[in-house]
């Protein structure tokens, strides 16, 4: 019990007294009580002790710790009006400034204060929330081992304090929720503070209090992602260099990454470069990585399904309705990748449901089907059977629509229908080879599709020429069906008609899951992602037959990828990004291990690429920005 | 325990037309948003509700309001602690300075040392902190004990209660129930009449502990939601 109290202000320097805890508490109580009688002397000394924050000598540290502990014992004597200077001094203290002992004492004081009187609850929670972020001078030290250690110390204490307060004040989490949401740095705080703040929010979500406040917090995080997302305009990504043609292929092969230091490696790199130096993009990248890591931890704890429902809801409310969201949707993609059977299918089903519901507004239905198409094409983890069942739903809906509607091309009136058709064709550009080889799918899926495409509404003429062209090319190679009319595309990206059905929002050229342009984020997504360069179109069959090792047809590939993904996930990506040391070389090694494309074919593709570019627009870039339409 | 009451309320709820697709769900959601918050109209905290929709057809309000009004009849369980009411709660934390109590599982209460009568002395027994009565050896308050206390004040925003253990008919419920009858005829009659008054509401079975009220509330809430 006996605590040595060195150098209490009113003591003489060379004397050291031994006090018991209760003696110190009563001393502090006297100091607090003396204010009421007008004697501020010892009270002012007490407040003075609280203001010591930097470069403390060991004895000062001990004094501060003892005082805080004594105050925690005397909270009932603190009066909100008479002791406001003491209270504000306490609320201004930052745990980041002190070592573990003082931080412990401070946390204890805050907890006792919060539960002692309802009036202090909000202030105490607010003080703890303000400890989410370090003081500005500390931000630079965060990456250093010492900084990381301090961060761990502070955050664990803050969250333990929340837990304690919630134990004694059961309704505290509700108040905490508002405080956390209000205290969230806005997008104009472009520094790292928001990253660590979001990290804390996610930590709160995964803790016990998360049961009560988790879903709202998660939604707030997604909202912030979207806000940052819309801050990055499409013109930051799009380049003005149209000399290369509006069609850009995706040069996303393994070798490209290795050459990433070299200047000329295609559209993907270039546009990423245009994002470089964009502080918002960097911030968003970091936040997305945090969210991904959080999802991974949810998956480990077996509560991904619950979190996914929240994400799905916020996706429907914010992401889907945001105008052409560019990055935030990858949260969904990653969550789906972690649990393809449940979450992955659930996402696709929800999108398909949104698309077929007549009660939904047209733009929602069109965006939903854009998301669905892009998702089904790009998700490497989806089984062929799930993709085909989704496609079947779309084809059935289109067929029904055709039967109900008669008449000529009218891009405006049948926008939803055309977007559906384009979605089907887009997915088939990526996956046709898988389906052609299965007779059942051929009869169920591809034959009805022919009826749709040859209907008088003539989707082939209206949809994006680039998609239609690629689709017809593959369909022809697979001898699926032939189109009697010849279409002249001239490598056009878009036509009058496609623009018309896309509307002012240009939903015709919206492919939400195109390769992710954020560097760190991309390294998470990449192993689960189908790049256009990995797709084996049907028209390559002739060459494949020459190869001996064509045992890896696409459907095998799909399966292989899933397995390989798991391996990679386990040994490389299971670790957090930081642990890996953010090393792109290592990452490339991992990529090579995946052997995405069989060597022989990849060589062929590389050699042949320049003579016969695969013309699927991976990243379709509107020739003009929508505003100028 | 006092402070709980059942009210029959005639309410008119204004719903936005966008909610017209699922009216009953949005009524429940609207009422649900009132739960566990102090409401001045009800003069208490809404704990549970049972609602009947009287109108088969809602009236669209004329004029600028696009909302439509629905008449409801609701049975509300309210919690409105007032000074000098007797409340019951479970001790969750105890120190020399104070006793922390949770009432009905959601409202926190604190009884500070100056509001604890001199009869109780703070002691530590095998590292367990407790308040023990000097005059009655078996009258002990420790973490986990259900106690009865008087309300001194109630913070309506945080639902935080400041309580007191000054008067003689407060303390550990278990001990009070056993000994108060023999001990003090006067206290007993005053307390019984209080209790009877309150039990007249027939909201809760006699002898039920506050924890089971809480369960009751949660259950009924759950039932509402699943309906």
Automatic annotation (TrEMBL), chain A:
Q: Which GO terms describe its biological process?
A: transcription initiation at RNA polymerase I promoter
One Gene Ontology cellular component term attached to this UniProt record is:
nucleus
Tell me one GO molecular function of this protein. RNA polymerase I core binding
Against Pfam families, the record matches this protein to: RRN3
Q: Which InterPro entries match?
A: RNA_pol_I_trans_ini_fac_RRN3 (IPR007991)
Positions of region (Disordered): 606-629
Family per similarity comment: Belongs to the RRN3 family.
Kindly provide the name given to this protein in its UniProt entry: RNA polymerase I-specific transcription initiation factor RRN3
Species whose genome carries this gene = Gossypium raimondii (Peruvian cotton)
From TrEMBL, chain B:
* Locations listed in the record: Nucleus
GO BP, sorted A to Z: DNA-templated transcription initiation; transcription elongation by RNA polymerase I
Q: List the InterPro entries hit by this protein, alphabetically.
A: RNA_pol_Rpb7-like_N_sf, Rpb7-like
Q: Which cellular component terms (GO) are annotated to the entry?
A: RNA polymerase I complex
Give the signal peptide as a residue range, or say none if absent. none
Show the segment(s) annotated as Disordered: 197-227
Q: Could you name the domain of life of the organism this protein comes from?
A: Eukaryota
Keyword Transcription in record: yes
Q: Among its keywords, does the record have RNA-binding?
A: no
- Keywords for the protein's UniProt record, in alphabetical order: DNA-directed RNA polymerase, Nucleus, Transcription
Under the heading PANTHER family, the entry gives: DNA-DIRECTED RNA POLYMERASE I SUBUNIT RPA43 (PTHR12709:SF5), DNA-DIRECTED RNA POLYMERASE II, III (PTHR12709)
What the protein does comes down to: DNA-dependent RNA polymerase which catalyzes the transcription of DNA into RNA using the four ribonucleoside triphosphates as substrates.
The entry's protein name is DNA-directed RNA polymerase subunit
């Amino acid at each position: 019990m006996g605590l040595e109290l060195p150098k209490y202000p009113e003591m003489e320097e060379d004397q050291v007294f031994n006090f018991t805890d209760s003696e110190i508490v009563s001393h502090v109580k006297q100091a607090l009580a003396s204010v009421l009688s007008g004697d501020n002397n010892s009270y002012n000394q007490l407040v003075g002790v609280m203001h010591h924050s930097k470069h403390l000598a060991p004895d000062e540290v001990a004094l501060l710790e003892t005082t805080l502990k004594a105050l925690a014992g005397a909270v009932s004597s603190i009066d909100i009006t008479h002791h406001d200077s003491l209270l504000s001094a306490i609320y201004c203290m930052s745990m980041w400034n002190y070592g573990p002992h003082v931080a412990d004492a401070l946390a204890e004081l805050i907890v006792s204060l919060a539960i002692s009187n309802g009036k202090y609850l909000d202030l105490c929670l607010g003080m703890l929330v303000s400890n989410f972020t370090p003081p500005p001078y500390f931000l630079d030290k965060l990456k250093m081992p010492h900084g990381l250690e301090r961060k761990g110390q502070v955050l664990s204490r803050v969250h333990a304090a929340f837990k304690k307060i919630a134990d004694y004040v059961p309704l505290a989490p509700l108040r905490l929720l508002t405080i956390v949401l209000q205290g969230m740095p806005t997008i104009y705080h472009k520094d790292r503070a928001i990253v660590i703040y979001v990290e804390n929010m996610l930590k709160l979500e995964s803790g016990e209090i998360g049961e009560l406040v988790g879903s709202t917090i998660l939604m707030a995080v997604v909202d912030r992602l979207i806000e940052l997302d819309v801050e990055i305009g499409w013109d930051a990504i799009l380049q003005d260099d149209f000399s290369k043609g509006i069609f850009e292929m995706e040069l996303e092969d393994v070798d490209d990454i290795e050459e990433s230091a070299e200047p000329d490696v295609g559209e993907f790199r270039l546009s990423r470069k245009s994002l470089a130096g964009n502080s918002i993009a960097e911030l968003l990248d970091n936040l997305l990585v945090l969210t991904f890591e959080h999802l991974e931890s949810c998956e480990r704890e077996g509560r991904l399904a619950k979190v996914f429902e929240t994400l799905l809801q916020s996706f429907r409310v914010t992401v889907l309705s945001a105008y052409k969201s560019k990055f935030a949707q990858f949260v969904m993609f990653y969550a789906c990748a972690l649990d393809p059977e449940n979450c992955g299918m659930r996402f696709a089903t929800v999108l398909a449901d949104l698309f077929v519901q007549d009660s939904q507004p047209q733009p929602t239905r069109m965006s939903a089907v854009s998301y669905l198409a892009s998702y089904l094409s790009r998700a490497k983890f989806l089984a062929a059977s799930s993709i085909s069942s989704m496609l079947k739903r779309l084809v059935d809906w289109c067929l029904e629509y055709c039967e109900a509607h008669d008449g000529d091309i009218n891009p405006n009136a049948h926008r939803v229908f055309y977007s559906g058709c384009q979605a089907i064709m887009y997915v088939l550009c990526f996956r046709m080879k898988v389906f052609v080889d299965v007779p059942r799918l051929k009869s169920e899926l591809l034959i009805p599709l022919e009826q749709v495409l040859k209907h008088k509404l003539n989707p082939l003429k209206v949809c994006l020429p680039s998609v239609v062209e690629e689709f017809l090319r593959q369909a022809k190679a697979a001898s699926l069906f032939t189109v009697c009319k010849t279409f002249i595309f001239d490598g056009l990206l878009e036509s009058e008609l496609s623009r018309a059905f896309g509307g002012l929002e240009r939903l015709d050229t919206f492919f939400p899951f195109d390769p992710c342009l954020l560097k760190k984020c991309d390294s998470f997504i990449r192993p689960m992602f189908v790049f256009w360069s990995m797709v084996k179109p049907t028209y390559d069959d002739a060459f494949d037959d020459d190869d001996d090792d064509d045992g890896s047809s696409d459907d095998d590939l799909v399966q292989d990828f899933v397995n390989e993904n798991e391996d990679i996930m386990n040994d490389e990506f299971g670790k957090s990004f930081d642990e890996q040391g953010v090393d792109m070389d290592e990452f490339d090694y991992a990529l090579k291990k995946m052997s995405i494309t069989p060597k022989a074919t990849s060589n062929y593709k590389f050699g042949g690429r320049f003579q016969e570019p695969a013309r699927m627009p991976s990243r379709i870039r509107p020739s003009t920005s929508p505003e100028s339409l | 325990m006092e402070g709980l009451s059942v009210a029959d309320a005639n309410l008119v709820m204004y719903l936005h037309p966008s909610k017209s697709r699922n009216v009953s769900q949005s009524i429940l959601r609207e009422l649900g948003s009132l739960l566990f918050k102090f409401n001045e109209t009800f003069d208490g905290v809404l704990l549970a509700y049972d609602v009947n929709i009287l109108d088969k057809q809602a009236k669209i309000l004329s004029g600028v309001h696009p909302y439509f009004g629905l008449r409801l009849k609701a049975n509300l369980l309210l919690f409105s602690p007032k000074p000098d009411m007797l409340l019951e709660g479970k001790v969750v934390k105890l120190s020399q300075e104070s006793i922390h109590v949770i009432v009905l599982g959601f409202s926190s209460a604190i009884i500070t040392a100056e509001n604890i009568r001199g009869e109780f002395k703070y002691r530590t027994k095998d590292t367990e902190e407790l308040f023990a009565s000097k005059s009655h050896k078996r009258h002990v308050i420790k973490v986990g004990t259900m106690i009865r206390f008087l309300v001194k004040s109630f913070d309506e925003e945080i639902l935080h209660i400041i309580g007191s253990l000054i008067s003689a008919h407060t303390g550990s419920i278990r001990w009070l129930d056993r000994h108060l009858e023999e001990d003090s005829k006067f206290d007993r009659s005053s307390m019984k009449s209080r209790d009877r008054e309150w039990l007249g509401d027939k909201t809760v079975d006699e002898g039920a502990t506050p924890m089971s009220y809480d369960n009751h509330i949660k259950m009924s809430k759950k039932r509402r939601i699943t309906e």
